[in-house]
Design goal:
Blueprint: E1 28-31, E2 51-54, E3 82-86, H1 87-93, H2 98-101, E4 108-110, E5 124-126, E6 129-130, E7 135-137, E8 140-141, E9 153-160, H3 164-167, E10 174-180, E11 188-196, E12 200-210, E13 219-231, E14 234-250, E15 256-269, E16 275-276, E17 309-326, E18 329-353, E19 370-397, E20 400-422, E21 432-435, E22 441-448, E23 461-484, E24 489-509, E25 516-539, E26 542-553, E27 577-590, E28 595-613, E29 620-640, E30 643-657, E31 678-687, E32 692-701, E33 704-705, E34 718-719, E35 722-732, E36 737-744, E37 752-755, E38 761-764, E39 769-777
Parallel strand pairs: 7-10
Antiparallel strand pairs: 1-2, 3-9, 4-5, 5-6, 7-8, 9-10, 11-12, 11-39, 12-13, 13-14, 14-15, 15-17, 16-38, 17-18, 18-19, 19-20, 19-22, 20-23, 21-22, 23-24, 24-25, 25-26, 26-27, 27-28, 28-29, 29-30, 30-31, 31-32, 32-35, 33-34, 35-36, 36-39, 37-38
Length: 778
């Protein structure tokens, strides 16, 4: 608010400082003038200009609010588990991707792929369910299976539990929202230069400049990123990317504000198809090798081709407008057009051939053993066009204070997939011969298991004429209200109604091999999701709450591709899968509100998740329920002026309540895949005299099964438990320049970061490695 009539205020008390000489390095903050009315009061008709003030101590870890206007209350008074990961933590950790950022919250795991395919991008599992398609940028669904960089992010917000009222269709256990860096009236220039293990080279720039020549409250910001890196202990793998994100703001500190911003990202990577799990501790050997010693393969082995690639081009333009209709009432409108193109050719691995039917293979001679390499490709384009309007209002009725957030959303999302397949014609019998589930002999290129050659001749990956093109159009209205019944009691509720239509126009394989046929499917329906919560404040700095929420996920939600197969989860005749959750929690702000503590007990249930066939009628039926129970504890903030901490631990108890039908009996009572019973994360830093800062963290994940089948009898059944320790040391060379050393995996723990559903291949957790960064800010 730009103009506030003069009135007297108490001056905000500064935190006591043990190292007053270090405060020169703290960032400036733009705050409303009313908070710091330290001047002689002018006449009542005068107005106060905006005042900048330097904070005594910057709290890099504790956030006060979510960036979403749908959450009207501070986090301490929001009845839901929300973890906010601020950019300062990411800078200290040297994190560059969203997957690395999400290591700062427990209960999240990563998955590599299934059905012979290797997953790319941020493949996130949260509280037992796939959350890859529930990633948002500034409250708008992000698109594409790509790896997201954090160079242009202010913070990452992880919202846990069913959130259909917040976002519409999505994961039954929450979503991730990325908050974009936007211009402010502060003038600064910042940047980082990083070199490190794995031939890592990275540059970022962040420039913000007030531009009064274009009008009061005008500012411009530009973020840049360039990276050219390999991967530690992985031969031939590379990551090259560059991006720029310009933005301009008008009317800052005025009743009417506008933000225009754009993001362009390009990636040209050589992807990692993974390492075979063959020979790792716990690997289940084939019967033919029961009495044969099976050596583990080298973690450096690259089974792909030098012609493999993963190329991404993404563009996103956003226009956001805000207007304060009157004190406490704000109208917002945001529009976005985004497009992401991804093209890749990747060589994955699945089968090991060591039996006598393969030419030259000798059971007792590992040097003759071969690995099957399957070529796969993707040519995918995603588009999104949306316009969303939101109204926030604070008012009172009959002595009850309301904080209302309501809105309307129009969204059109489209995805086109050109089917890519390996062309083995001309290879004769030089490959390994395998048989698929239909008994058809197929061919997979072979390579040496222990000494692969990236210069081998590989089958080309080409378009085979099939295509999947789908789109979802959504119109939704929603309303959330927080009713403050008294200073101690609040009630929160939200409701979302949306109409959607998904259309899928495909070209599929025809009834006769080698022919193609068109297929058009559609699904239209209404979705109603809601949440309600009650909150009690036993003290001004704490709350105790109970909340209930729902979500729904209709067929075609993730891929926009409907499927005519009766038992396929994307069959348009099926009902949406449904989820509900109840949560009992408490939140407290301690140490003069510098430290946030959270605790939550929760239980989530889903139904309509499994599609089966009725034994009597043959009709498809939706059966099966999944339950996730857990406890999550967290802490973030300052223990003192020089000591900051962020930590969390999650305990999960998951179960599949499947029917006793033959094809699901092996899952009866089993745990959900990728759901560790215990996961822990922590990060802390301590400022020493003379400009030194030291820090470090630990991550723990208990053993996690890769499949919900109780009778896993092949490959590697689970990801073993692991502890990983990281460390950081920084030195302020001048008030504008600091050097930062990060060492990862101090104990050089050999661990699996992610694995495919079949347990045949994995992504290695980074061995001991280091980066050196120069941080510059003026």
């Amino acid at each position: 608010m730009a103009h506030i009539k003069s009135r007297k205020h108490n001056v905000a008390r500064a935190l006591p400082s043990r190292l007053s000489h270090t405060t020169a390095a703290l960032a400036l903050m733009a705050v409303p003038a009313a908070v710091f009315a330290q001047q002689t009061a002018p006449a009542a008709t005068d107005t106060l200009p905006a005042v900048k003030v330097k904070a005594a101590v910057e709290n890099d870890y504790k956030a006060e609010k979510s960036s979403s206007p749908k959450f009207t209350q501070p986090l301490v008074d929001t009845p839901q588990t929300i973890t906010v990961i601020k950019k300062e933590i990411l800078l200290q950790q040297g994190a560059t991707t969203l997957s690395e950022a999400l290591r700062n919250t427990p209960g999240i795991t990563f998955q590599m792929g299934e059905n012979g395919n290797t997953q790319t991008g941020d493949s996130i599992f949260m509280r037992g369910f796939d959350t890859q398609q529930s990633i948002f940028v500034d409250g708008i669904r992000d698109i594409g299976t790509v790896s997201r960089d954090v160079f242009n992010l202010e913070q990452v917000e992880v919202v846990k539990g069913p959130a259909g009222a917040d976002i519409g269709r999505g994961s039954p256990t929450g979503y991730v929202n990325l908050s974009t860096k936007l211009p402010t009236l502060e003038t600064f220039s910042a940047g980082t230069v990083t070199v490190g293990s794995g031939d890592k080279k990275r540059l970022t720039v962040d420039v913000n400049q007030a531009v009064p020549a274009l009008g009061d409250g005008t500012a411009f910001r530009l973020n840049l990123m360039k990276e050219d890196s390999g991967k530690v202990h992985r031969d031939w793998v590379k990551n090259e990317s560059w991006a720029f994100a310009p933005s301009v703001a008008f009317g800052l500190n005025s009743p009417t504000r506008a933000y225009l911003y754009y993001l362009h990202v390009e990636q040209d990577n050589r992807p990692d198809g993974g390492i075979t799990t063959f020979g790792r501790p716990g690997y289940i050997k084939p019967a033919a090798l029961a009495n044969v010693d099976v050596p583990e393969v080298s973690e450096r082995n690259y089974y792909g081709s030098l012609s493999d690639y993963d190329r991404v081009k993404a563009d996103m333009f956003t226009a956001r407008f805000e207007h304060d209709l009157k004190p406490g009432v704000t109208l917002r409108n945001i529009s976005r057009f985004g497009r992401t193109e991804q093209k890749y050719v990747l060589t994955g691995i699945n089968n090991i051939f060591v039996d006598s039917t393969q030419a030259g293979a000798v059971l007792t001679d590992p040097s003759t053993w071969k690995v099957g390499r399957n070529r796969q490709g993707k040519d995918q384009e995603n588009q999104i066009l949306t316009n969303q309007t939101n109204l926030n209002a604070e008012f009172a009725t009959g002595g009850i204070k309301h904080s209302l957030s309501s809105g309307i959303e129009f969204i059109h999302e489209k995805q086109t997939n050109v089917t890519m397949a390996a062309d083995y014609s001309g290879f004769g019998n030089t490959g390994c011969r395998t048989t698929n589930s239909s008994g058809v002999v197929t061919q997979t290129l072979c390579g040496s298991l222990y000494n692969p050659n990236a210069n081998d001749v590989f089958a080309p990956v080409v378009a085979n004429g099939q295509r999947a093109s789908g789109a979802t159009t959504t119109a939704a209205v929603y309303a959330f209200d927080t009713l403050k019944l008294s200073e101690a009691f609040q009630v929160n509720g939200g409701l979302r109604f949306e109409k959607y239509k998904t259309t899928s126009d495909n070209i599929i394989e025809g009834a006769t091999a080698g022919t193609l046929a068109p297929q058009s499917l559609s699904k239209a329906d209404d979705l109603i999701t809601w949440k309600v919560g009650g909150l009690w404040k036993p003290a001004s700095n704490g709350s105790v709450y109970i909340a209930y929420a729902t979500s729904q996920k209709p067929p075609g939600s993730d891929s926009f591709a409907l499927n005519a197969t009766a038992t396929n989860a994307n069959n348009p005749n099926l009902d949406p899968s449904e989820a509900k959750s109840i949560e009992l929690g408490t939140k407290w702000e301690l140490l003069d509100n510098r430290l946030a503590l959270t605790a939550a007990l929760f239980q989530s249930e889903t139904k309509n998740d499994v599609v089966d066939t009725d034994a009597a009628t043959g009709a498809p039926v939706q059966v099966g329920e999944k339950t996730v129970k857990g406890l999550e504890l967290g802490a973030a903030g300052m223990l003192s002026n020089v000591w900051q901490i962020s930590t969390g631990i999650a305990f999960l108890d998951t179960e599949i309540n499947a029917t006793t039908r033959a094809n699901t009996a092996t899952q009866q009572g089993s745990s959900l895949a990728w759901s560790p019973k215990v996961s822990f994360t922590s990060w802390t830093t301590y400022k020493l005299p003379l400009g030194f800062t030291v820090g470090g963290g630990a991550r723990y994940q208990r053993s996690v099964v890769r499949n919900s089948n109780n009778n896993i009898s092949t490959n590697l059944p689970s990801i073993p438990s692991y502890w990983v320790y990281d460390a950081m040391a920084a030195y302020d060379v001048t008030k504008n320049v600091s050097l930062q050393l990060n060492v990862y995996n101090l104990a050089d723990k050999d661990y699996i970061q992610s694995m495919n559903n079949g347990g045949s291949r994995y992504v290695l957790g980074a061995p001991r490695s280091a980066t050196l960064t120069a941080n510059v800010k003026f």
